[in-house]
Amino acid sequence: MGDLNFWQSYGVLGAALALVGLLVLIRQKVAGVAAAAPRTRTGGAVVAEATPEWEPVSGKIAVGNAQTIGRRQEQDDYFASSITRVGTMAVIADGISGVAHGRMSSTLAVTMFSREYLKVTGQDEIPGFFQKAAVLSNRAILEQLGGAIGGTTLVAAVISEGRLHWAAVGDSLLLLFRDGEFLPVNSKDTLEQVLEARVLAGEITREEAKANPMRGHLTNYLGYGGFKSMEVGEPVPLEPDDIVILCSDGVCDALTEVELEQILLQRMPPQETAEEIIASVERKGYKHQDNATVIILEQAR
């Protein structure tokens, strides 16, 4: 992820965790998701809400997830997946590297999105859910920071009635793999995108853009005082063999598009696919490997 050049002492995680409520922070890999009662999986743990049995209107979606701490001292990525009557939701937040409160920020944001998603009763409410959860997350993170520096990127997806609804802020990615190719979905909120626009406008050269040492820095994220909204895309109709991938930038910075394609073309079950992606990241052995997290969503076969 684009680092911020600030270092602050770590000390607010305990206060943030008081807001978690319905989530349990257990760092372990889990396989499979049952579509019975509404369920939330977060950071590796599964929490089930007791309600009458039902089938989600979107059909059964198989979910796989995996993550690695990389070479970081702490795991600042946090993730969750939830199934409700409306459909299947997945979310990944990547706490800003080099900042003491990244873990608090990502945990709080994912918690807020998971909680707010349980209130959604229909497809028409999904865009509003994304924006409301983002605003609430940003406000809560700023309150917890109390003037300190911190924040998190976030990417979220909801599959409902065969359509992919999505939203993102920062530089975590949502990828759609169809017919052996990646279809672009979200864009990154980094200075690199601003520089690219200036290149296209003829204001600077491409060489100047590439040489800018600030190009990887975030221009929008949760926990930012200037945050106004996140990118919310138009729903994407899904085809039967589509694979939806959510990942923190620790995945895409480590693996090439071709390497990801080779894994996805094996058509393994989503959990095995997620584990192989993270294993491939770890096999690279990069000295400065960032935290890396991936969630795979696919129509159950």
Q: What is the overall pLDDT average?
A: 81
Structural class: alpha+beta
Termini separation: 34 Å
Write down the Rg: 18 Å
Find the CATH superfamily: PPM-type phosphatase domain
Q: Give the overall form.
A: globular
Q: What is the succession of H and E elements?
A: HEEEEEHHEEEEHHEEEHHHE
Instruction: Describe the oligomeric state of these chains in a short phrase.
Output: single chain
| Count of individual domains | 1
Query: How much helix is in the residues?
Result: 25-40%
Largest sheet: 8 strands, antiparallel
Q: What's the CATH first level?
A: Alpha Beta
Number of helices: 8
Instruction: Pick out the low-confidence regions.
Output: 2-40, 44-58
Known CATH architecture: 4-Layer Sandwich
Percent strand equals: 15-25%
Stated plainly, the CATH topology is called Phosphatase 2c, domain 1
Let me know the number of strands.
13
Transmembrane segments: 6-26
InterPro entries: PPM-type-like_dom_sf, PPM-type_phosphatase-like_dom
Keywords: Membrane, Transmembrane, Transmembrane helix
Domain PPM-type phosphatase: 62-299
List keywords for this structure.
13 strands, 301 residues, Phosphatase 2c, domain 1, 28% helix, 5-stranded antiparallel beta sheet, disordered N terminus, alpha+beta, 8-stranded antiparallel beta sheet
Protein architecture, described:
The chain is an alpha+beta fold and about 300 residues long. The protein has a single domain, classed as Phosphatase 2c, domain 1 (4-Layer Sandwich). Helix content is about 30%, strand content about 25%. The chain has helices at about 15, 100-115, 125-145, 190-200, 205-210, 250, 255-265, 270-285, and strands at about 40, 45-50, 60-70, 75-85, 90-95, 150-160, 165-170, 175-180, 180-185, 230, 235, 245, 290-300. A hairpin with a 2-residue loop joins strand 1 (about 40) and strand 2 (about 45-50). Helix 2 packs antiparallel against helix 3.
